[in-house]
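Sample entry follows:

_____
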Amino acid sequence: MSGKIVILCYLIFLCSSTAVAQDVNFSQPYASRHYLNPAFTGLGPYWSASVAHRNQWPALNGSFITNQFSADYRLPGTKSGVGLLLQQDRAGVGGLQKLQATGSYAYHTAVTDKWAFSGGLQASVASLRLNYDNLVFGDQLSDNGLVAVTSAEVSNFEPGRYVSFATGGLVYTEQFWFGLTAANLNRPSYGFGQKTALPLRFMATAGYKFYARSYQVQGRLFELSFIPAASYIRDHNFSRADLSIYTIFTPLTLGLIYQGVPVATAANQDQTLAMLVGLQLEQFNIGVSHAIGLKGFSTQAGGATEITLRFEQLDLNKLLRSRDKNKLNQHNPWPSF
C-alpha cells in the first residue's frame, strides 16, 4: 500500500471520529438553527445572517477547522421561510476538505392558541477533495532530510460530490420546543474510489424555558431565565446524547454543554464540556465557547473553540410595510446560541 493510501485512510478515519456522517457537532447549535433542523428556517426575526468559526483539536499538527455562513428570511405576509447555508470543513494538515451548500424551506402554522408547528425541507450539495499541497511523501525526502519539491506519487483521487436531502418537524410554545430531523434521506454515496453510502441520521432536540423574571421595554423582552435542553443523534450504529443548560440575563447568555453523555453509547465515547458566553444586543449577537475534553481523544487533542456572529433584522415591518401580524415568531423559547 502506497504512502498516499495510508494517509488517505488516516484522514478519513479522523474525519469520521470528528463528526457523525461528516456533520459537525457545534457547541453553539442554535446560532445557525436551520443547520440543526430545517424546520427552524424563518422562525424569529424577518431575516438573520450568521457566521461561525470552529477550531477543533488545536493540539494536533493541523487542527480541524469549520467555517460556516448561514442566512434565513421569513417571506413577508406569509407563514414561510427560506434559508441558505455555506460551509467549509478542513481536516488536518493538507487533508480532507469539504464544501457544502444547503438550501432550506419551512412552513409555520398555529395549531392552538399556545401551540405551533413548523415543517421544513432541506437539500445539500457537497464536494469532497484531498489537498496534496502540504503532504510530504517518502520520495521527497533524502538521506540528509532535504525535501524535494514534487513527488512521483500520482494524485488520482478526483473530487467526490453528492446530494443529500433532509426533513424536519418542530412543535413549540413560548416556553417549550421539541424537534425531529431525518437526514440523508436518499442515502447518498461519498468518498474516493470505493464509495460509501451515508446512513440515515435521526436527531431529536428539546428544551424548556423557565422564566424567573421578564418584562418589556419599548417592545423588547428583558428576562432572567433558565433553559435546560437536550439532543440525541442516532446514525446507523452510532448514538450520541448532549445535555445543556443556559442562563439568560438580558443581554448576557451563559451556557454549559455536556457533549457525549455516556448513557447513549459505549463508555469510551469522546466526551467534552463546553462553556459558552454570549452577548445578545438588539440586532447583533456574539458568542464564544470553548470545549475541554473529559474523556477520549479530546483530552489529548485540546477540545474545541467556537466563535459565532449573528446579525438580525432592522425594523422590516416598517421598511416593507408587511401586513404579517403572525405571532408564531414572538418570544421563541430556544436560546440564541
User: Anything to note?
Assistant: Residues 3-319 form a domain with the Porin fold (CATH 2.40.160.40). DSSP finds four helices and 17 strands in the chain.
